[in-house]
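Entry 14. Ran structure prediction on the chain below.
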Amino acid sequence: MAQEELSPDGTAVALRDGWDGVVADWSADKQAFSVPWGKAMMWIFLLSDTFIFSCFLTGYMTVRMSTTEPWPIPSEVFALNLFGQDIPLILIAIMTFILISSSGTMAMAVNFGYARERKKVAILMVITALFGASFVGMQVFEWSKLIEEGVRPWSNPMGAAQFGSSFFMITGFHGLHVSVGVIYLLTVAFKVNRGDYEERGYEIVEITGLYWHFVDLVWVFIFALFYLW
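Output, C-alpha coordinates:
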Protein backbone atom coordinates (compact mmCIF):
# COMPACT_ATOMS: atom_id res chain seq x y z
CA MET A 1 0.00 0.00 0.00
CA ALA A 2 1.40 3.36 -1.05
CA GLN A 3 2.15 5.88 1.67
CA GLU A 4 1.18 9.52 1.53
CA GLU A 5 2.91 12.80 2.29
CA LEU A 6 1.76 16.41 2.36
CA SER A 7 2.66 18.69 -0.52
CA PRO A 8 3.61 22.36 0.05
CA ASP A 9 -0.04 23.38 -0.49
CA GLY A 10 -1.25 20.90 2.16
CA THR A 11 -2.78 18.26 -0.12
CA ALA A 12 -1.97 14.55 0.27
CA VAL A 13 0.26 13.06 -2.43
CA ALA A 14 0.71 9.31 -2.86
CA LEU A 15 4.28 7.99 -2.65
CA ARG A 16 5.31 5.30 -5.15
CA ASP A 17 6.59 1.95 -4.00
CA GLY A 18 9.85 0.21 -4.98
CA TRP A 19 12.46 1.65 -7.34
CA ASP A 20 9.90 3.95 -8.94
CA GLY A 21 9.51 5.63 -5.57
CA VAL A 22 13.29 5.93 -5.10
CA VAL A 23 13.72 7.52 -8.53
CA ALA A 24 10.78 9.87 -7.98
CA ASP A 25 12.14 10.90 -4.57
CA TRP A 26 15.66 11.60 -5.84
CA SER A 27 14.40 13.52 -8.87
CA ALA A 28 12.00 15.68 -6.84
CA ASP A 29 14.74 18.22 -5.99
CA LYS A 30 14.13 17.98 -2.25
CA GLN A 31 16.64 18.85 0.44
CA ALA A 32 17.45 15.63 2.28
CA PHE A 33 19.26 17.28 5.23
CA SER A 34 18.68 20.66 6.85
CA VAL A 35 22.27 21.79 6.19
CA PRO A 36 22.90 24.71 3.82
CA TRP A 37 24.88 23.82 0.71
CA GLY A 38 27.63 26.31 1.49
CA LYS A 39 28.27 24.80 4.90
CA ALA A 40 28.08 21.24 3.55
CA MET A 41 30.62 22.01 0.82
CA MET A 42 32.96 23.61 3.35
CA TRP A 43 32.79 20.49 5.54
CA ILE A 44 33.62 18.32 2.51
CA PHE A 45 36.57 20.56 1.65
CA LEU A 46 37.84 20.46 5.23
CA LEU A 47 37.50 16.67 5.28
CA SER A 48 39.66 16.40 2.16
CA ASP A 49 42.17 18.81 3.68
CA THR A 50 42.26 16.68 6.82
CA PHE A 51 43.39 13.72 4.73
CA ILE A 52 46.18 15.80 3.15
CA PHE A 53 47.52 17.12 6.44
CA SER A 54 47.23 13.65 7.96
CA CYS A 55 49.36 12.24 5.13
CA PHE A 56 51.96 14.99 5.60
CA LEU A 57 52.21 14.48 9.36
CA THR A 58 52.21 10.69 9.08
CA GLY A 59 54.97 10.88 6.48
CA TYR A 60 56.95 13.23 8.71
CA MET A 61 56.64 10.93 11.73
CA THR A 62 57.65 7.91 9.63
CA VAL A 63 60.73 9.69 8.27
CA ARG A 64 61.73 10.95 11.70
CA MET A 65 61.50 7.53 13.32
CA SER A 66 63.26 5.70 10.48
CA THR A 67 66.16 8.07 9.69
CA THR A 68 69.61 6.93 10.76
CA GLU A 69 71.00 10.45 11.09
CA PRO A 70 70.37 12.46 14.27
CA TRP A 71 67.26 14.60 14.14
CA PRO A 72 67.80 18.26 15.10
CA ILE A 73 66.52 19.22 18.55
CA PRO A 74 63.57 21.63 17.98
CA SER A 75 64.19 23.62 21.18
CA GLU A 76 67.68 24.47 19.85
CA VAL A 77 66.82 24.93 16.18
CA PHE A 78 63.89 27.24 16.88
CA ALA A 79 65.49 29.18 19.73
CA LEU A 80 65.55 32.96 19.41
CA ASN A 81 68.31 35.11 20.82
CA LEU A 82 66.86 37.87 22.99
CA PHE A 83 68.94 40.08 25.29
CA GLY A 84 71.93 37.81 24.79
CA GLN A 85 70.01 34.67 25.77
CA ASP A 86 68.80 31.83 23.53
CA ILE A 87 65.14 31.35 24.46
CA PRO A 88 63.77 28.04 23.11
CA LEU A 89 60.58 28.12 21.05
CA ILE A 90 59.68 31.67 22.11
CA LEU A 91 58.70 32.71 18.57
CA ILE A 92 56.67 29.53 18.07
CA ALA A 93 54.90 30.14 21.39
CA ILE A 94 53.97 33.68 20.32
CA MET A 95 52.74 32.41 16.94
CA THR A 96 50.60 29.78 18.66
CA PHE A 97 49.16 32.34 21.08
CA ILE A 98 48.28 34.66 18.18
CA LEU A 99 46.56 31.92 16.21
CA ILE A 100 44.56 30.67 19.21
CA SER A 101 43.54 34.27 20.00
CA SER A 102 42.33 34.63 16.42
CA SER A 103 39.98 31.70 17.00
CA GLY A 104 38.44 33.68 19.85
CA THR A 105 37.84 36.79 17.74
CA MET A 106 36.42 34.63 14.94
CA ALA A 107 34.02 32.93 17.35
CA MET A 108 32.88 36.37 18.56
CA ALA A 109 32.33 37.45 14.94
CA VAL A 110 30.11 34.42 14.33
CA ASN A 111 28.15 35.16 17.50
CA PHE A 112 27.54 38.77 16.46
CA GLY A 113 26.61 37.48 13.00
CA TYR A 114 23.71 35.57 14.57
CA ALA A 115 22.66 38.86 16.19
CA ARG A 116 23.02 40.66 12.81
CA GLU A 117 25.39 43.30 14.21
CA ARG A 118 27.34 43.76 11.01
CA LYS A 119 29.72 46.49 12.22
CA LYS A 120 30.98 44.34 15.07
CA VAL A 121 31.20 41.33 12.76
CA ALA A 122 33.30 43.25 10.25
CA ILE A 123 35.63 44.67 12.91
CA LEU A 124 36.20 41.28 14.54
CA MET A 125 36.86 39.61 11.19
CA VAL A 126 39.42 42.29 10.32
CA ILE A 127 41.09 41.75 13.71
CA THR A 128 41.15 38.01 13.01
CA ALA A 129 42.74 38.68 9.62
CA LEU A 130 45.39 40.89 11.27
CA PHE A 131 46.20 38.07 13.69
CA GLY A 132 46.55 35.73 10.71
CA ALA A 133 48.77 38.17 8.82
CA SER A 134 50.97 38.55 11.92
CA PHE A 135 51.29 34.77 12.10
CA VAL A 136 52.36 34.55 8.46
CA GLY A 137 54.86 37.38 8.96
CA MET A 138 56.45 35.54 11.87
CA GLN A 139 56.54 32.36 9.82
CA VAL A 140 58.38 34.22 7.04
CA PHE A 141 60.90 35.40 9.64
CA GLU A 142 61.29 31.82 10.91
CA TRP A 143 61.86 30.54 7.36
CA SER A 144 64.42 33.24 6.55
CA LYS A 145 66.31 32.49 9.80
CA LEU A 146 66.59 28.78 8.97
CA ILE A 147 67.54 29.49 5.35
CA GLU A 148 70.35 31.77 6.58
CA GLU A 149 71.55 28.91 8.78
CA GLY A 150 71.78 26.65 5.72
CA VAL A 151 68.60 24.60 6.02
CA ARG A 152 67.19 23.61 2.64
CA PRO A 153 64.46 21.18 1.51
CA TRP A 154 67.23 18.86 0.28
CA SER A 155 69.88 19.40 2.96
CA ASN A 156 70.37 20.31 6.59
CA PRO A 157 73.70 21.15 8.29
CA MET A 158 72.21 20.39 11.73
CA GLY A 159 71.50 16.70 11.12
CA ALA A 160 69.00 14.64 9.10
CA ALA A 161 68.42 16.07 5.63
CA GLN A 162 64.73 15.14 5.84
CA PHE A 163 64.26 17.81 8.50
CA GLY A 164 64.34 20.59 5.93
CA SER A 165 61.92 18.97 3.49
CA SER A 166 59.48 18.05 6.28
CA PHE A 167 59.64 21.52 7.82
CA PHE A 168 59.18 23.53 4.62
CA MET A 169 56.48 21.23 3.26
CA ILE A 170 54.28 21.09 6.37
CA THR A 171 54.66 24.68 7.60
CA GLY A 172 54.55 26.02 4.05
CA PHE A 173 51.29 24.22 3.24
CA HIS A 174 49.78 25.42 6.50
CA GLY A 175 51.06 28.95 5.92
CA LEU A 176 49.38 28.90 2.49
CA HIS A 177 46.09 28.03 4.17
CA VAL A 178 46.50 30.88 6.66
CA SER A 179 47.32 33.34 3.83
CA VAL A 180 44.25 32.27 1.86
CA GLY A 181 42.22 32.55 5.07
CA VAL A 182 43.37 36.14 5.60
CA ILE A 183 42.21 37.08 2.09
CA TYR A 184 38.95 35.20 2.65
CA LEU A 185 38.35 36.99 5.98
CA LEU A 186 39.02 40.45 4.56
CA THR A 187 36.78 39.80 1.55
CA VAL A 188 33.85 38.62 3.68
CA ALA A 189 34.43 41.44 6.21
CA PHE A 190 34.25 44.01 3.40
CA LYS A 191 31.01 42.53 2.06
CA VAL A 192 29.52 42.30 5.57
CA ASN A 193 30.35 45.94 6.27
CA ARG A 194 28.80 46.90 2.92
CA GLY A 195 25.56 45.19 3.93
CA ASP A 196 25.56 42.46 1.28
CA TYR A 197 24.23 39.83 3.71
CA GLU A 198 21.45 41.79 5.38
CA GLU A 199 18.75 39.97 3.41
CA ARG A 200 20.44 36.57 2.92
CA GLY A 201 21.68 36.27 6.50
CA TYR A 202 25.15 35.85 7.96
CA GLU A 203 25.65 32.16 7.26
CA ILE A 204 28.81 33.04 5.29
CA VAL A 205 30.43 34.27 8.53
CA GLU A 206 29.89 30.86 10.14
CA ILE A 207 31.29 29.12 7.04
CA THR A 208 34.37 31.37 7.16
CA GLY A 209 34.69 30.53 10.85
CA LEU A 210 34.69 26.79 10.06
CA TYR A 211 37.66 27.27 7.75
CA TRP A 212 39.57 29.44 10.21
CA HIS A 213 39.02 27.14 13.18
CA PHE A 214 40.23 24.23 11.06
CA VAL A 215 43.44 26.10 10.22
CA ASP A 216 43.97 26.81 13.92
CA LEU A 217 43.32 23.19 14.87
CA VAL A 218 45.82 21.90 12.32
CA TRP A 219 48.47 24.20 13.79
CA VAL A 220 47.94 22.61 17.23
CA PHE A 221 48.92 19.23 15.74
CA ILE A 222 51.90 20.73 13.89
CA PHE A 223 53.02 22.49 17.07
CA ALA A 224 52.77 19.29 19.13
CA LEU A 225 54.33 16.89 16.63
CA PHE A 226 56.97 19.08 14.98
CA TYR A 227 58.07 21.59 17.61
CA LEU A 228 57.49 19.77 20.91
CA TRP A 229 58.45 16.23 19.90
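The first helix runs from residue 18 to 26. Will compare against last week's run tomorrow.
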